[in-house]
Amino acid sequence: MILDGIAKKALLFDFYGELLTENQKEVYGEHIQNDLSVSEIAQLRGISRQGVHDMIRRCEKILVDYEERLHLVEHFLTVKKMVGVIHRYAEEISDCGDREEISGRIEDIKRISSEILEQY
Q1: Tens digit of pLDDT for each residue in 12-47?
Q2: Which PANTHER family match (predicted)?
């Protein structure tokens, strides 16, 4: 996965967050989605900073383990990249007047869309 830390954590949480316990989901969500610090979460929940820190690290490990086993985020990013290429080719076709180049781009679109369809 080629993402920065925050984006990677947010995607992992989006894909696998429902597999955490309710408490884990709330604490990790406050940290990732609401950008609360460990101290702020600890104060809100009436628990120690160390407890919050440990829970966040445990949640990160759980989410990474799910991704290592299921690869849903990896597949999502691959398909997103392929759809981006298809979109670019479609824009090139609409801007192009050369029939041979249009035909080539259409074949590229068919090939890429077939790859996507075969994966799912």
Answers
A1: 999 999 999 999 999 999 999 999 999 999 999 999
A2: UPF0122 PROTEIN CBO2450/CLC_2298, UPF0122 PROTEIN YLXM
pTM assigned to the model: 0.78
Q: Which of 27, 25, 55 is nearest to 40 (CA)?
A: 27
Q: Which two tokens stand for residue 49?
A: 């900073």
Phi-psi region of 71 (alpha: psi -120 to 50; beta: other; left: phi over 0): left
Tokens (6 digits) for 86: 């298809």
Length of the chain in terms of residues written: 120
Phi-psi domain of 54 (left: phi exceeds 0; alpha: psi -120 through 50; beta: other):
alpha
pLDDT tops 60 at residue 2: no
DSSP track, 20-62: S-HHHHHHHHHHHTS---HHHHHHHHT--HHHHHHHHHHHHHH
